[in-house]
């Protein structure tokens, strides 16, 4: 149970604050296997809502779900040269099964390109069998050395989409379409602004032609890569003989995409909206949007107030003004616990809206509301309470996005920034720096070595500066791209 | 794609029929790792609907979802003596991670009692923290030698519920309540009749006090254990020091239950309802309930009929007579494919209801329907088509259950059956035999050895024979229980 001890503040120690929020809001816990985490019901409830929203988007855009095996033969991992180099070192390896040593070791999937394109090759003969648009919800394992709850764990949950197309352009359009779906989800469900763009060659997925990504800024001004969408070209199709007879009669290799987001997003949500009182959940992803706390002094009063709270809940959940998406309401009628302690707990857990209902409120036929985000309090008349609550929740959702965007923009640096100034920023407050880059990987490596900042992406057009720098920040040579630099999780 | 070749019939070779249905209806496929399967979208769609229905039931009865790690330290598996004996031999073992040999090997979870009760012990201090009612949707690995698609695979998907209670009686009530939820799901969603009861000591879960189970009969008269619910007593609580301070102030060990159903149920669905034309899906679990096949001869006619089919689909899906549970309808407007080939394919895939819409039907303002289960065909007037279709689907759902129950009852043997007659039944047609048993494990082992039949359960009261045998079928001694014998998957 949550105790009343204050959290470490974000300003004191952002990293300690984050861990305390995760543990004390009971979102997750450490497990006995180093680097693995347990996702507790409060955290899993957010993930379930994320899954539902994303799954609806995938299905609405023509994708179907399937499930591919956890264990992958070692030889499969070695078929695509860049892929094995990128992933094999961080794999967990099964060497024994059923009491015997295996003839060929099996890798726990770090991602499923190899096994999925092997299967696609079995299923595809003709252009008529294309496109294949599949997704799976699955666990993957990557042997990470430095782990953080939700952000980087040995095992994590995610979805991985895998598609096969007849042409490069179709695959490219798919990879970008999915990027748009992710962006819509992150902005409109997570209330988390993102910069979309292309990864540099050194940061792209092992085996991809091009990697698109979504980069969010956390409250410590560090970047979080929140999702990626890859145009894999024909790399895996060639490695796994994924071929088809084209309309022309020619045998061609298919073009693949893969794309994924994970439980890491829960960490992103916490670090985007949380405050010194704990978690703040955007209403659309909150398993409970509204908690009603009835207030009483005597036992008689208790019975009456709990009844009134339940009646209020029934009115809110019965309201159909949001269609099938009914209000998600909980009544906290626990006895033997002070109201203040309840408020504290629900604030820590990030419930978007609290309604307090005492005898005087009931007399006045109103209820007292407290927003989690702004902590603004106001009475709401009982008459029309459901649409008023829904309106408040919609405002909270919108305001969270606006506030997060304002924070990001305030920590975003554009214009002609010298490399010295850049170093100051990265050593100091951090943030996103838009700067010119000559496109040379050696320069990229040098900056990373000297400042720990990395190129988060070559931003998509709408994010670029109106007057993009014409020269490379480091070399002064003509800039090939404007890129976004930041330290990252 | 499905070809027109006839399936092996159930009468010819039930096992071959089953595999052909799974592969040709594209429910699943073999994977390159022996014993692992790929669940293809047609099969996964059924599993998704199973998940949704069960998840709703778990939540309605107060359970929350969480997620625990895939990898379990070897030492954990050894803490409960019966458990390690039952499961360790069939585990997959990770010995290397991140390029290094691990100090302690990790087992891929065959089930999660050990790690979950370890975590519960961390979270529970007082009786106020009880009960804990949790569930997880997860993959597990058991090293099986003889595998069958869906029925027995190296890796499978399931849910595992885990609860902790203050008393034996509460745990017992939970285990039985869940058995009831499973039964409701199997009867009313899967349309699969089940016998519920208690496992004998030799058949119970490794580490349980008591195992309750649901046994269904497949069309080859073999039993399928479709789900289990265990009262674990205090065995795991003692092994993992899951203790709490009772209201009395005493420190006591908690009482646990665990319960699970898996993708095996998809196999049960196939073998319960499938026929010589392929899969038959109960409407409630069908991702597509109705397929509309527009019929045309000329291109002009095609445009008109596809438009009419889409209009019909809109009318069906727009109908709100089932509330939020809208009709799930697909229009098959594929060009260059004969209607007969389409019918064949949708029958193979088990779509409950087909609607054929040709120019003459349109003229008569009706549509021609063909039930998948009984293959009965009838015209339905366009006026009021949606409620008529919903009514037909409800009839299909009910009739599938009635037919399956009639088949099971026809292959169920009760009364005073001699052991010789029993052997004849088990060597011949098979089925469920209700017989007296003196309770001696040696007798149970002898029958298994001699006939391959096992005690499926000591049936719950409502399934017992009105005149239960008073003597043990094998020894002639007084019967301690009436039990259900069958050969099983």
Structural class of chain A: alpha+beta
Shape of chain A: globular
Q: On the 0-100 scale, what is the average pLDDT of chain A?
A: 96
Query: Which runs of chain A of at least 5 residues are low in confidence (pLDDT < 50)?
Result: none
The largest interface is: A-B, 56 and 57 residues
Biggest pleated-sheet summary of chain A: 11 strands, mixed
Using the coordinates above, name the CATH class of the largest domain in chain A: Alpha Beta
The CATH level-2 architecture of the largest domain in chain A is identified as 2-Layer Sandwich
Describe what you observe in this structure.
- Two copies of one chain form a homodimer.
- With 489 residues, the first copy, chain A, is α+β, with helices and mostly antiparallel strands.
- The first copy, chain A, folds into three domains: 14-273, BirA Bifunctional Protein, domain 2, CATH 3.30.930.10; 288-392, Rossmann fold; 412-486, Translation Initiation Factor IF3 (2-Layer Sandwich), CATH 3.30.110.30.
- Chain A has helices at 14-24, 41-60, 74-77, 81-87, 113-123, 168-188, 235-239, 264-273, 299-318, 339-348, 359-363, 385-410, 419-427, 441-451, and strands at 28-30, 37-39, 64-65, 71-73, 92-97, 100-108, 132-141, 155-165, 195-198, 210-217, 223-233, 243-245, 251-253, 255-262, 290-294, 329-331, 353-357, 366-371, 377-381, 412-413, 432-437, 454-459, 481-486.
- The longest helix of chain A is centred in the C-terminal third of the chain and has 26 residues, at 385-410.
- The relative contact order of chain A is 0.11.
- β5 (92-97) of chain A pairs antiparallel with β5 of chain B.
């Amino acid at each position: 149970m949550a105790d009343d001890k204050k959290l470490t503040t974000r300003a004191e120690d952002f990293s300690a604050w984050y861990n305390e929020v995760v543990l004390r809001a009971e979102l997750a816990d450490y497990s006995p296997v180093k680097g693995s985490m347990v996702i507790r019901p409060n955290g899993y409830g957010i993930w379930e809502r994320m899954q539902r929203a994303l799954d609806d988007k995938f299905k609405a855009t023509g994708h179907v779900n399937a499930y591919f095996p956890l264990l992958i033969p070692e030889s499969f991992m070695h078929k695509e040269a860049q892929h094995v180099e990128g992933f094999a070192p961080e794999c967990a390896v099964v060497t024994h099964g059923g009491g015997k040593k295996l003839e060929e070791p099996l890798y726990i999937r770090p991602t499923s390109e190899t096994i999925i394109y092997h299967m696609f090759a079995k299923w595809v003969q003709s252009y008529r069998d294309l496109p294949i648009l599949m997704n799976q919800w699955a666990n993957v394992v990557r042997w990470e050395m430095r782990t953080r709850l939700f952000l980087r764990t040995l095992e994590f949950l995610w979805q991985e989409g895998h598609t096969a197309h007849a042409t490069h352009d179709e695959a490219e359009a798919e990879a970008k379409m999915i990027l748009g779906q992710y962006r819509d989800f992150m902005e409109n469900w997570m209330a988390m602004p993102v910069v979309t763009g292309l990864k540099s060659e050194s940061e792209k997925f092992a085996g991809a032609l091009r990697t698109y990504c979504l980069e969010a800024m956390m409250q410590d001004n560090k970047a979080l890569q929140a999702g990626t969408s890859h145009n894999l070209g024909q790399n895996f199709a060639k490695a796994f003989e994924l071929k088809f007879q084209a309309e022309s009669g020619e045998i061609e290799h298919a073009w693949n995409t893969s794309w994924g987001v994970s439980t890491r997003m829960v960490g992103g949500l916490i670090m985007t909206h949380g405050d010194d009182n704990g978690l703040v959940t955007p209403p659309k992803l909150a398993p409970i949007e509204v908690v009603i706390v009835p207030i009483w002094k005597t036992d008689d009063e208790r019975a009456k107030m709990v009844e009134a709270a339940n009646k209020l809940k029934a009115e809110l959940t019965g309201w159909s003004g949001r269609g099938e998406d009914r209000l998600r309401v909980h009544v906290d009628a626990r006895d033997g616990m002070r109201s203040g302690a309840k408020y504290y707990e629900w604030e820590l857990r990030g419930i978007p809206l609290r309604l307090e209902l005492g005898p005087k409120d009931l007399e006045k036929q109103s209820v007292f509301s407290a927003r989690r985000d702004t902590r603004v309090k106001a009475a709401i008349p009982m008459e029309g309470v459901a649409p008023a609550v829904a309106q408040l929740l919609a405002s909270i959702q919108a305001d969270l996005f606006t506030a997060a965007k304002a924070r990001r923009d305030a920590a975003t640096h554009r214009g002609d920034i010298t490399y010295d100034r850049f170093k100051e920023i990265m050593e100091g407050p951090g943030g996103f720096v838009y700067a010119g880059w000559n496109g040379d990987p050696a320069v990229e490596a040098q900056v990373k070595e000297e400042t720990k900042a990395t190129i988060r992406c070559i931003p998509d057009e709408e994010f670029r500066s109106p007057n993009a720098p014409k020269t490379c920040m480091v070399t002064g040579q003509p800039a090939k791209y404007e890129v976004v630099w930041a330290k990252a999780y």
